[in-house]
Amino acid sequence: QGLLPPNLAFSGTYSENGETKTTTYNLNISDGIVNGFSHDDDGRARVTGKVCASSGVLALMEQRDGVHMEIMGTLMQSPSGAYEIQADYISSYLGTEGRLFLQSAA
């Protein structure tokens, strides 16, 4: 795995309550600290967290308008060179749980 690029733009899907919808994430990574934004049908949210470059373990907090979401998963590089995030999340809004699948451009 090694070093992660300082900026990654992801697109993909999130699935919750039997529905799958599109989302995008723009993340800045410096020394394992993650900062950025996400955008989906709920609007724009601030994203903060940490990632371990060697293991790919990822822990993020997404926040918007009094609602926060805890995200736990992995960030790995695929054979094509693209980066992929697979994660589970739980939202403070009604305890909604879901799954996130994201991929960067190669």
Walkthrough of the structure:
The protein has 106 residues and is mostly beta strands. It is 0% helix and 71% strand. Strand 1 (7-16) and strand 2 form a beta hairpin. It starts with 6 loop residues before the first strand and ends with a strand.
Which helices and strands appear, and what pairs or packs with what?
Layout: E1 7-16, E2 19-30, E3 33-40, E4 43-51, E5 57-64, E6 67-77, E7 83-91, E8 97-104
What features would you highlight for this structure?
mainly beta, 0% helix, Lipocalin, 106 residues, eight-stranded antiparallel β-barrel
In short:
With 106 residues, this protein is mostly beta strands. The protein contains no helices and 8 strands.
Number of helices: 0
Q: Radius of gyration in whole Å, from Cα?
A: 13 Å
The CATH top-level class label = Mainly Beta
Largest sheet: 8 strands, antiparallel, barrel
**End-to-end distance:** 15 Å
By CATH, the topology is Lipocalin
Stretches where pLDDT is under 50 for at least 5 consecutive residues are none
The main sheet orders its strands as: 1-2-3-4-5-6-7-8
Architecture, CATH level 2?
Answer: Beta Barrel
> How helix-rich are the residues, as a percent range?
under 10%
Shape: globular
SSE order, one letter for each helix or strand = EEEEEEEE
**How big a fraction of the residues is strand?**
over 45%
User: What is the number of domains?
Assistant: 1
Structural class: mainly beta
Number of strands: 8
Roughly what is the average pLDDT, rounded to an integer?
95
